[in-house]
Fold each of these.
Amino acid sequence: MFESAELGHKVKKSVYEDEVPALREALLTAQMELAQSGAFQVIILIGGLDGAGRGATVNLLNEWMDPRHIQTHGMGEPTDEELDRPMMWRFWRALPPKGKIGVFLGSWYTWPILNRVNGKTDTADLEQSLGRAKRLEKMLVDEGGLILKFWLHLSKKQQKKRFTELEKNPLTRWKVTKRDWRRYKLYDTFREVHENVIRHTSTAEAPWLIVEGEDARYRNLTVGKILLKALQERLQLAQAPAPKALTPPWMPPIDNLHLLKTLDMSQVLEKKEYKAQLQKYQARLAELTRDSKFKYMSVIAVFEGNDAAGKGGSIRRITKALDARFYQVIPIAAPTEEERAQPYLWRFWRHLPRKGRVTIFDRSWYGRVLVERVEEFCAEADWMRAYSEINDFEAQLVRHNLLVVKFWLAITKDEQLRRFKDREKTAFKTFKITEEDWRNREKWELYEQAVCDMVDRTSTLLAPWTLVEANSKYCARLKVLKTLCDQIETKLKHLHESGVNYLDTPKKKT
Amino acid sequence: MFESAELGHKVKKSVYEDEVPALREALLTAQMELAQSGAFQVIILIGGLDGAGRGATVNLLNEWMDPRHIQTHGMGEPTDEELDRPMMWRFWRALPPKGKIGVFLGSWYTWPILNRVNGKTDTADLEQSLGRAKRLEKMLVDEGGLILKFWLHLSKKQQKKRFTELEKNPLTRWKVTKRDWRRYKLYDTFREVHENVIRHTSTAEAPWLIVEGEDARYRNLTVGKILLKALQERLQLAQAPAPKALTPPWMPPIDNLHLLKTLDMSQVLEKKEYKAQLQKYQARLAELTRDSKFKYMSVIAVFEGNDAAGKGGSIRRITKALDARFYQVIPIAAPTEEERAQPYLWRFWRHLPRKGRVTIFDRSWYGRVLVERVEEFCAEADWMRAYSEINDFEAQLVRHNLLVVKFWLAITKDEQLRRFKDREKTAFKTFKITEEDWRNREKWELYEQAVCDMVDRTSTLLAPWTLVEANSKYCARLKVLKTLCDQIETKLKHLHESGVNYLDTPKKKT
């Protein structure tokens, strides 16, 4: 795997000086074209061995190109903020928008490799981490991103020579630390793990590019030329029409029976009884969120439902019981410009709560498989792959002790009509009803199909959907509150039993 | 996940009888078109719960369509033959050729699920198995295959009802076994594992299709319609031109230095010394392959090299030391018609040796990234993905105690010319030299590049490449023999130390 990167590649100074000006100019041109078109995001990972020139390569990219369009991220030890969220959160928030280049020194591979070398994890754990990394990269590529993974390599002999030389020179002595020598002693172990990582994650869409690190001129030319060719080819491709993707098989409607039809929409409740129950559940919720173990978990409540199904009203009954400093309600409308320049999940990752907090999404990432599917805002292949991307996203949350509670508020078509008309008649409610609501209503059956598929494909043991019969607002609000309380209680019970008392990511598999 | 499959779906008899004739006719038409075009292979997995109608569905497909173009495989306990090979071997040999439909009752999911339910494996092990399954399916789809994964589901109540009903009737009592009731008691455990499996392996290219199993008419119509739509759409797509794939980044040549240039091609050896050494290594090889632990491993030796580099001669020096009953030499030329109707790795899977045997491939699966790449017999995207497919293939072999020893026999361009001319002059050698050899020679540099990429991307710790300087036939043969002996010895040592004394697949991860 490292054979060609241990040959002693070298480029003569005269050759280098001859080639660099044209290369830099071409790189700048490509970069400008990228920035102006905003066609895709470029993610560059710089991995490899200590002393192989990772830092120098990052500097080089910033020197050769316009640094205003490059974002460099040295990913060291995670911060408290970051430890509070799933591992991938720090990378999501660092993703470059379309048109920009993000350079990562240290990546989603760094800790899995270190943990394996230090024996904190075994091969199966490592493979699980690598599986997550591959799914992330596949998603980024499917979203149009260009990923370049450079691996700067040195042979054992070269690494020793490099450290020794640096130490001899008083001006560079600081570059070599005790940690470097400690890691050098583990060279063979590292090499074995590195090879395993590279073998598992050199996919066709994002292969590792192994570059011999010893000779700076060789390294620079190699990295520069790969980057140039990749940018140019992708810019060209970005102008071509999207190819027709394979259509996966799909469930046909056979007997006109579906999930939403099984709901009992005739439930009613007296106001007096509602008031009493509401108080009871709000008190219970207040108590639960003040439990001593609540600081080790967080809650994400997702609200989806028909227009006018009463999402807002249900949410207000929840927040009334919460401490205003510890919750956030995120209303999801059309994405902002900044959000459109990112993969669709980005705007949800950015709002993930810290430990001990509650975040309520009024509409959510499920827009991808609901409105975006029905209104054909994205291609069939895109919302098809979204189911597994979403399951994967939620699995990461749950793994990190984020409780994900998902509600679909369902009303009948007649009830919606009644509410729409009511909104039009009542002065202080007219802002709630728009032309769009009437248009959506025309696609009622398509939305129903999308909702059933969504529940079938994303209701998991980790994060189940709760279907809420919402023709009666009272019944709906109580079912929401009760479900939320029940699920928090179960989670807290689990935390008490497992004796959790740390805030950082569990090191071992769950 | 199973929500929509527990609703009590039903189709009336009159509706069913109305719809079936047209559906059957359309299925037959599609099947005939598939058989005549030979455009792709169809792989249907029938998974799900006991009593949910898996067997009935298989019978149905054979009844509704032309059974001559359907191959049905009930995958029960593996045979001795199968246990001797990596787990996937039995599925590879059962793959339907292009134009045919293969129906699998029991699949690569069956044992991972059972092992997890029985507690023989943990979640991480399961995920590793599922990773292998996904890679296999992705490869099959990339090779043009259509995969349909049906999951026939019953709720716990439905399953109990089904078993009870069957038992009451003396004619169907035999259908319910003690094992069925034992599994019924584990319903919740199974459900959890099933959900995990479905969530992880519902990819966009091959999602699980969950079908409620209780009502036979509903089940039949659903399966039939999905199959019809999938066949029709894929047949249509098969006629469209292939879309332009993303070009992944690739290593540019920078300093004109590559692996093959670092070989010392000036080695020479006296005939007398050669004879002595040859005898020594052949004796050692004979001894090693008769070691008491050799029956727990097998050897695959792969020979690739320049034309006229002496592959045949080296192979003959190996086989001379082997017992003729225990080795096979497989010369790889252009694929047969049967082989062309399968994914490219199929013809290598079929030749995998049993335990205690040696198989020597004279050329191999590396043709994909050598001749097929250089001669453009396959698209860039196809040979690009081949590297990881090959690594994955070899990892499966190594995991199963198959030792993979790979040789590249290199000669210089001048030496090749000398040998070509010699072959033309010598009467009994002329059969060895063809027009094609001369044509290949013109692409010398392209082949060199392909060889270097191949070594860089597929030389792994599990299965490293050995580059053999073959300008001297004597030196080459000895290096081959010595390498082979060394690697067998290391493997045997490992087997002796680990005290292996079983022939079947290791149950736990390695």
Amino acid sequence: MRRIRYSVAISLDGYIAGPNGETDWISTDPEFGFSAIMSEFDTVLVGRRTWQNMKATGNTLMPDMRTLVASRTLLQRNEPTVTVIPNPSPVLTALREKPGKDIWLFGGGTLFRSLAKAGLVDAVEVAVMPVLLGAGIPLLAGPAARVQLTLTSRTAFRSGIVWLKYDVADAAI
Amino acid sequence: MRRIRYSVAISLDGYIAGPNGETDWISTDPEFGFSAIMSEFDTVLVGRRTWQNMKATGNTLMPDMRTLVASRTLLQRNEPTVTVIPNPSPVLTALREKPGKDIWLFGGGTLFRSLAKAGLVDAVEVAVMPVLLGAGIPLLAGPAARVQLTLTSRTAFRSGIVWLKYDVADAAI
């Protein structure tokens, strides 16, 4: 079965972006093997705000990937390059049963919260940047039910980035 | 010179306690070597709220350690077991120059913010628990200046706890 994996960069204090959406603290690392990781996915899944932020910054290109945007307010006819899904649960439940590569939940923390509550997130994978921000957009939007995790892999790079992979042990407590 | 090390357990999303001060999600690990780590310190440094939480839960025993409580409001005569320091910066600057073991900054995020801004924190060391809380008391109280870090060591335990140690690269940007 295809897995839905929430895979993002975070600060050590758990933010996926700064208070104003800043991502300049996220560094790339040649050791990271980003394209190898990308090749494990064929679908990108984002929330409305993340999608609008991607469009505003021009970072919408995910080669060879289908993009799903979870939103009750966006209109499909205004978003010709993506598939708008107003009700993600049945769409994702069906998609997981079909053959294909994994589904990359790219953010944000609000979509993650609702999908985790519905038991629809299989893994949480974070590239921990060596910085503390003090404020920003959280990895998991609160208030939320606790999400218990099981560590499956950890790698540290010379740049100081630590790549931690977890399975979601109990998605809906 | 003695080092001031902010050494705490955090959730993967960067909280040192739950929204109501909960710490039940912090597990101990026999592999962790807690007493060996404790032996590197002879002084514990906490903020007022952390100290009051320690007293409320009865967790005030730090054998063979002197406890400093940073507070402008607590009265020394009401706190006979600790040393109240109303103005931490000169006290800590002087203390770092004296011989002795390291100083354990045990929390919380507000004291860490003010000490980091003053260039008085040498290291940040976190035991990352395999859980997401979604809300709670942050590792670094916001809003704050960014704290850049340099990874110095990482260890993963069978329990899924990841122990990350960083030097503070640039305490006061």
Amino acid sequence: MLNEKLNKYSLILGSESPRRKHFLEALKLDFKTIRIDAEEVYPKYLHGNEITNYLAELKSEAYPAELADQELLITADTIVRCNGQILGKPTDLDEAKSMLRFMSGHIHEVITSVCLRTNEKMKVFSDTTDVHFKELTDEEINYYVETYSPLDKAGAYGIQEWIGYIGVLKIEGSFFTVMGFPVHKFYKEMMEF
Amino acid sequence: MLNEKLNKYSLILGSESPRRKHFLEALKLDFKTIRIDAEEVYPKYLHGNEITNYLAELKSEAYPAELADQELLITADTIVRCNGQILGKPTDLDEAKSMLRFMSGHIHEVITSVCLRTNEKMKVFSDTTDVHFKELTDEEINYYVETYSPLDKAGAYGIQEWIGYIGVLKIEGSFFTVMGFPVHKFYKEMMEF
């Protein structure tokens, strides 16, 4: 199993996302969590998973120390792309509502990249899932935004929350990628790392 | 919102599945839970969602009393179809392992039906999701079956558990239908009931 395979590493999760912590815990991994401050700015010529790959690596490089011999740093980034526009985390509740209105009745992509890095090697990989939202009413959008915590989430929603229950007609891809961590690919990459 | 719309009903969930209870709670619904004993046998000429529609209705009709005027009974059934075979709940851990070996590396369908019934009307609806499993190793299958509780789950796995994290490459449809409750369709049907 993965936890035996990774015994030799001391794992560091460079993300304070409770969803990402949950996935590492579910894989029975021991790890510590640190906050990494990186300004999430990327060159304009990047598209799709080039953006999340860039930002996952940027966060990895913003780790505030040299990695020790046995340390393995995990960072990740998630964005939403809808009708050609890239949506990150909303800055306030009004922006959260307008993001949800923008995605209502449409398909959007959720793209998540993960960067694995030791002081010897680095691997970046990504995964994309299509999400089909129903037509959301203003009442539904307002209720969700005012009752839940959309501000720490790319695209202003959590698929594992109320709006994901009532609003998502179908997805194509991994549900966990939408939650911010493509855990099936993480498992595979870690087994081969 | 749905809880206001359904104020007039006294909801009864005819299922002891903790996943189904969770979805009704997440929709902020008040309900009571009862166990319904129905032998899950269906005519051989039924296929796909005809089977789950039949069994969801069978469970509804096995409710051990007349429904009172304001009562609304919710029952559901889930099956897995893989390579033309129907998989229900495994009877023991050996059957759970052989079901998972059977699905390993293949696509299967998870079909869930829900029956809504009052003493005046009844509605049955279903939803289907395709699930793509990676090639699971015997070590992975044995670890999952011996560590988790596959016996109360159609197809011997929970997608929200370890094996869903490491083993599911992608799905097409609703994640919640795979968990045993197509909550997006339930919400829509209840709003119109």
